[in-house]
Amino acid sequence: MSDLHWMSASAAAAAIAKHELSPVELTKALLARIARLDPRFNAFIRVEADAALKDATAAEAEAAQGRLRGPLHGVPVGIKDIIDVAGLPTTCHSKVLADAAPANADAECVTRLRAAGAIVLGKLSTHEFAIGGPSLDLPWPPARNPYNRDHHPGGSSSGSGVGLAAGFFPMALGTDTGGSVRNPASACAIVGLKPTYGLVSRRGVFPLAFTLDHVGPMTRTVADNAVMLAVLAGYDPLDPGSVASARSGSYARSLESGVRGLRIGFVRHFHEVDLPADPEIAAGLERVAKTLASEGAEVIDVKLPPLEDFAAVNRVILQSEAWSIHAEWLKERPGDYGRLARRRLMSGAFIAAGDYVLASRRRSEMNAAVDAALREVDILLCASAMDPPCKIEDPAAVERTYMRQARTPFNVTGHPALAMATGLSRDGLPLAAQFVGRYFDEATVLRVARSWERAAGTDALHPPL
Amino acid sequence: MNEKTIEVLARCAGLEKALKEFPDDVAAAASSAGKVTDHVRATSVAPPSLEPWPPMVVRT
After folding, report:
1. Cα separation of A262 and A292, whole Å?
2. Of A135, A180, A259, A344, whose CB count within 10 A is highest?
3. Domain count of chain B?
């Protein structure tokens, strides 16, 4: 088979199940591509070639006997390096943990992927501790955008986005505390979903901010995202944030149902008033709205609190909780952090307890506001990034990137949110949109996303490598 | 937040080493914290009795 590197996870799993594709052949092809191209893009912190080939060989033997572990049997996956993989150190892309002892066990999300048959290829670049980056002062270089390596690939799940766009693997795990799954999805033209808070276990993931952290599937296609989410979703009694009564199950069933009859709330003020977007971003959002309307959805304007209010609440909570995690290291070894992470993480030392409570109280109001909007419509459409990916070695532009986005609202409120491409800019850089659903209604988010993907052909976008 | 206040707060938080080695980073961290807390204080109209916890109500 040719072009194995662009094969979707679903297609690969189907071909393996029918004995048309060998997991070893697929894994070898991807490892060869990684060896050839990753020195330019730095998606990986470590490639576990021997372990992956051993697991692929076992998967091949099982497939030959008709024993398939699950819907991802024999399909490779990349893991963001703040997520534990048994036997490997979790470095968080930081000198602070560069010599960390190997993890004793897989994170729950990795356990679930392996149980479904996935093969771990290695650990992926991230912004330091999922907050400080992209940085050139860390033990590993920052990941670079496959559409143009001079540009930022988004973060913090940067290696996940880069590796998917570069054809290194068909699925990856990311984490999202202020938009870190959806930012690289937007910058690399892939599909990134931040599920409802509590749907996917965070056990075994190095925390950034307990009440904002989410683990999410990252893929090249919406269908793969649905399959991966079905594997990841479910109650974990050992994750205090996990929701026992969470609905999970098949997210793929209604993917092809279209949008006829759905009410879509377009949050225009995010990109028209709060943070006026680049014209190509705005035009992309209009294309999405018009396309979905032409397919039978009713698109109406919806108003939420201003982006600046969401961002401030997100930061007060994030920085307070992150300080509680990093305080001792920041006191004793501040020089072991890169400059960006050190600055961002120390902020929590200057936030009073009363301000944290005030932000948490404001958060309750924001949850109610988004919930109220989602009682009037089935789904929200809004911007993700306000600009195409900026130059990676322009610190001011990178800093601006993190201010000019509409992802943090849904970390604050916990609603499911998916970012995906609307197309490419005149300069060949990804442009993106975001869909947001009701709590635990990922099925509708994915269904609408699939309608747009089908209409626009965004799953066929690949960088010119 | 003025320089003296930042220094006092940083020392209270145990950031003496960072103050000595990375004073600009400490100042930037304090400035960032000040901006976001000021914004939350200025825009919050929630009554003091509003329950701040749990942080979100997730309906299933």
Report:
1. 9
2. A180
3. 1
* Cα distance between residue A1 and residue A257, in whole Å: 31
Question: Among the options A157, A158, A180, A201, which is catalytic?
Answer: A180
Q: Which domain holds residue B39?
A: 3-43
B11 within domain boundaries: yes
β-strands A263-266, A379-383 pairing = parallel
Taking the C-alpha atoms of residue A325 and residue B30, their distance in angstroms, rounded to an integer, is 18
Looking at CATH, the fold of the domain delimited by A11-460 is given as Amidase signature (AS) enzymes (3.90.1300)
Residue B37 lies in a domain: yes
How far apart CA A332 and CA B13 sit, in angstroms, is: 12
- Name the nearest CA neighbour of A383 among A259, A262, A289, A454: A289
Is B55 inside a domain boundary? Answer: no
Q: Do A312 and B58 touch (CB under 8 A)?
A: no
| Single pTM value for the model | 0.97
From the list A8, A10, A22, A80, the catalytic residue is: A80
Residue positions counted in chain B: 60
CA dist A379 and B54 (Å) reads 25
Residue B43 CB partners (closer than 8 Å, separation 6+): A309, A312, A362
Do A214 and A202 touch, CB atoms closer than 8 A? yes
Whether B25 sits inside 8 A of A339 (CB atoms) is: yes
ipTM at complex level:
0.93
pLDDT tens track for B5-54: 999 999 999 999 999 999 999 999 999 999 999 999 999 888 888 888 56
